[in-house]
Amino acid sequence: MFACDAVDLDFLDTAPRRLDATVKVRRPPSEVFAAFAHDPANWGEFFPGFDRTGTYHSSAPHGVGSRCTKRVTGIKVEETVLAWDESARFAFRVDTTAAPAFHAWVEDYHFEPYGSDGTLLRVAIGSKPRLAFKLAAPVLQPIFARLMTRAGHNLEHGRWFSTPTTNP
To answer: Among 11, 35, 121, 162, which residue is least crowded by beta carbons within 10 Å?
Structure first.
């Protein structure tokens, strides 16, 4: 595993590379938040490239400081939650990865009410890429926008995600 820099949310303001996307999802913010935050295995149900092996390393309730593992395109990543505002915001950093793609990585998800029962999902990623990601920089933003659009579509047409009964 390759260790990444232990950055915080302020890294989004200074990251050498940044990706942004906004997606409208026809599900309420509580459900979209639940899909992203409550169980890392959920990512395999809606986000292209992720499998269903994601797991938290601590018992519930989860929140800021919780650690989890996910697999994307077969590559293991370990993450720490940096922000958890139920139904409103979820953010994390990557602590280690099986592929040396970047030195630092932070993802920040904002879930805003949209229309009568939808979500405006705003996503920002800040990274300090290694060579492979630097070379791919010209195509990353359009690819990221398409991935987020696909994830939003999958959330609208996938299983119903429920909200938790308790969380700090």
So the answer is: 162
